[in-house]
Design goal:
The complex is a heterodimer. Helices cover 52% and strands 8% of the residues of chain A. By secondary structure, chain A is mainly alpha-helical. In chain A, β2 (195-202) and β3 form a beta hairpin. By secondary structure, chain B is α+β, with helices and mostly antiparallel strands. Chain B has a single domain, classed as 2-Layer Sandwich (Ybab, Chain: A). Classes of the chains: A mainly alpha, B alpha+beta. The interface between A and B is medium-sized, with 29 and 32 residues.
């Protein structure tokens, strides 16, 4: 990929467009050409002055590789949270080996059989019993966050490809428009399929119907419909420098809109998921233990540790 | 200029006349070089020679068209084997006028003439007495001049035609 050369390509486009327009105008000016040259040149430079500026924002897009450490961290979180059942990533499938440390909480039941009192009851009710579900839901949430990062990463990767294609095709179109054939070309806007909507990820909670909204990267979601089909291709044409550059401006605007629409998909899913999590907090985080508020006065009482028989 | 321009500019197409006696090369967009099989030049009459050159021109143009679409395919990253259909009124205006477009060139002494209409109907004329007067290298130079002038004429007229038909395109 020549994305690294993007600004150099932009300069080349500008130079070629100016050159073509000037020589074409001079040829049409006939005998008056030598007098009109200064004006013709100035007009061409003005007509195409905006070209480098159009490409600059794209040259500053985030590097997809910069997402990898964050994705890696979330994979680590998923390994930590992976319990015995249902430990495959709900979005792109890989199975995370169970973390045996998590099983130890269930093993505590036998230790506290003879511990009675409110603290004991609450401990069992608020921590031991819901523990597997809470862990599972944190696992799911990590998976959703990881997939969102992967989707964002894929979007930037494809955006780089698409802007580079626009530049390359524009150069070729300028090279080719003086030939006798019609000058038209098509571009595939691959960024359009980068972010895949995932069927809602149901949260483990016996009673309610909570679900996390998720998106995934088209690169990793196995069931994604192949986005590279003709519906993402658009056709452009131009028989003069002005026409070709006008089409280029249109293509760039389309790409910017496409990027915005893909980002909006991710943002919406994340906002919805945030709402679900904050609205159903107890499914994701165990309640604050009573013992956390105990003091010397009540710690041995019924609201505290209680007694052992 | 970009990769496509470079490739089109340096394109080289070769062919041979139907009678097998004249080899032709089209290169650098505007140059046509010919060479005669030893001894064949002197055996031609002007009219037969003109016919053979006309056929050679057609073959070179066909080869050039193939190379051209191969270059486009590579530049645009998709297989292109022909022109896309005319969509707009402008396209139709251009294509129709292009069919009728006549491009011509002559050698500076006027002995060789090359003309083409719509890049399909070719006419080559060699003045009577030329074969006696010029040796084959001198003749090849006249062919070079005439075809160079014709190709330049074609490009210039195409550009004017496009300017005319697509005037309000932007």
């Amino acid at each position: 990929m020549s994305f690294e050369n993007l600004m150099a390509e932009a300069a080349e486009i500008q130079k070629s467009a100016i050159g073509h327009q000037v020589s074409n105008s001079l040829a049409s000016a006939g005998r008056g050409a030598v007098y009109a040259e200064k004006q013709i040149t100035a007009k061409a430079q003005s007509d195409f002055a905006d070209i480098p500026g159009l490409y600059e924002p794209f040259s500053l897009m985030p590097d997809p590789a910069s997402y990898q450490p964050m994705i890696h961290d979330l994979e680590g979180a998923m390994r930590t949270l992976s319990s015995g059942q249902g430990n495959s990533d709900p979005i792109d499938g890989p199975i995370y080996p169970a973390n045996p440390t998590l099983d130890k909480l269930n093993g505590t039941e036998s230790y506290i059989e003879n511990w009675t009192g409110r603290a004991a009851e609450d401990f069992k009710r608020n921590f031991i019993d819901p523990f597997p579900a809470v862990v599972r839901n944190q696992f799911l949430l990590s998976a959703v966050l990881k997939a969102a990062l992967e989707a964002h990463q894929e979007m930037w990767k494809r955006a780089r490809t698409d802007i580079d294609n626009i530049a390359t095709a524009t150069i070729s179109a300028l090279d080719h428009m003086d030939d006798c054939g019609s000058n038209d070309w098509s571009l595939a806007f691959t960024v359009l399929g980068a972010v895949v909507a995932i069927a809602a990820v149901p949260v483990t909670d016996g009673a309610s119907l909570l679900a996390l909204a998720a998106v995934g990267s088209a690169a990793s979601v196995a069931s994604a419909v192949a986005p590279g089909g003709d519906e993402n291709k658009r056709r452009f044409s131009g028989e003069s420098a002005g026409a070709v550059i006008a089409q280029m401006r249109t293509a760039i605007t389309m790409l910017a809109n496409d990027i915005a629409s893909q980002e909006a998909k991710i943002a919406k899913a994340m906002n919805d998921t945030y709402g679900t999590v904050t609205g159903g907090r107890t499914s994701f985080v165990s309640n604050r233990p009573l013992l956390a508020d105990a003091n010397a006065g009540n710690v041995k009482g019924d609201l505290g540790l209680g007694y052992a028989s | 200029m970009g990769v496509l321009a470079d490739r089109l500019d340096s394109m080289q197409v070769t062919s041979t006349s139907p009678d097998g006696q004249i080899a032709g090369v089209l290169r650098n967009r505007t140059e046509v070089l010919i060479a005669f099989r030893p001894g064949s030049y002197g055996r031609y009459s002007e009219s037969v020679l003109a016919d053979q050159l006309g056929a050679l021109a057609r073959l070179l143009w066909a080869g050039r068209t193939r190379e051209y679409y191969a270059a486009l395919s590579e530049a645009f990253g998709e297989t292109i084997t022909g022109e896309s259909p005319a969509i707009s009124e402008r396209d139709r205006c251009y294509r129709a006028a292009r069919e009728e477009l006549v491009a011509e060139g002559r050698s500076s002494d006027g002995l060789v003439y090359v003309g083409v209409q719509g890049m399909r109907t070719w006419a080559v004329r060699v003045a009577d007495g030329t074969i006696r007067e010029l040796d084959e290298h001198e003749f090849a130079t006249r062919v070079y001049e005439a075809s160079h002038a014709m190709i330049d004429d074609q490009f210039a007229k195409i550009r004017q035609l496009k300017n005319y038909c697509y005037a309000d395109e932007v």
